[in-house]
Amino acid sequence: MSIQSNNDPKVSVVMLPLDEFPIVEKKCILKETLEEMSQFQIGIACVADKENKFLGLITDGDIRRMLLNIQKPLSALFMEDINDHMIKNPFTIYPSMKISEAVLFMKEKKIWDLPIVDVNKNLVGLFHLHPAIDYLISLSKNK
Question: What is the pTM of this model?
């Protein structure tokens, strides 16, 4: 089944803007990162510097796996820098990517979120599966 159409819009149409998902600095501790993720009610935090250069990310799944693999007290883990645990080379996409291509890529990689970066690797948004699905459903209803 193909979800692509002749008028396939770009991910920039449905991306979450920078103020709608957690962005933390690499010296942020894990506890603060978890609080940011909870505040936005989303299972990902992007890591960027003060100039918005994208450095990596961490997901709730990464944190769950870390808790199972690292034999430290939870209180000690909470105080560690996110830089020590983030994924430093995650998948990213550009704002010009088609929504259908991004959704199929997410399906293939079994992920829910893709940071959107510009050509200079500056974070410009987040492609989250739920808004993308809502948008695609609205397109099909308008046919």
Answer: 0.89
